[in-house]
């Protein structure tokens, strides 16, 4: 089996880069993304030199970074409420506990059992950070594969099939949050 470049890029590295981009000023954001793209292109070039028949591309990166523009993959069918319920169930949290309420009521003010932040990603990070390893072994390829499986399972469920790979989605969503 051929080694693809996306299998060489740690998901933690992609997450760190995206966090830096999110907090950077406008001009720096572009430079950071261009640097990531050029590093990935360099890996593609080296892989092509190593294996002349390699058919690697930048497509997995685009699919993960711009999911709304990926018409081939389709919807994941996981909204914030559903994801909060999955986290609560998978992590064994109490729905009426502090962290369970923060996940379920992330949009509500802190006094109503919600959180200070109105962004689900921030609330989920706060709740999950002490429950997840600092560094996992997920790669860009694994994340892309899991997202495809989630989208396929959602499409199958919409058409009457009930098989949903919770293990894969758990691995994606909480297995390598760093």
From TrEMBL:
Q: Which GO terms describe its molecular function?
A: ATP binding; DNA binding; DNA ligase (ATP) activity
> Record's superkingdom?
Eukaryota
The enzyme class is ligase
Q: Which UniProt keywords apply?
A: Ligase
GO CC annotation terms, alphabetical? DNA ligase IV complex; DNA-dependent protein kinase-DNA ligase 4 complex
DNA ligase ATP-dependent N-terminal domain sequence ranges: 12-153
- Protein name, per record: DNA ligase (ATP)
Under Enzyme Commission nomenclature, its number is 6.5.1.1
Which InterPro entries does the annotation name? DNA_ligase_ATP-dep_N (IPR012308), DNA_ligase_N_sf (IPR036599), LIG4 (IPR029710)
Asked whether the keyword Ligase is assigned, the reply is: yes
Q: Which gene encodes it?
A: LIG4_2
* One GO term (biological process): DNA recombination
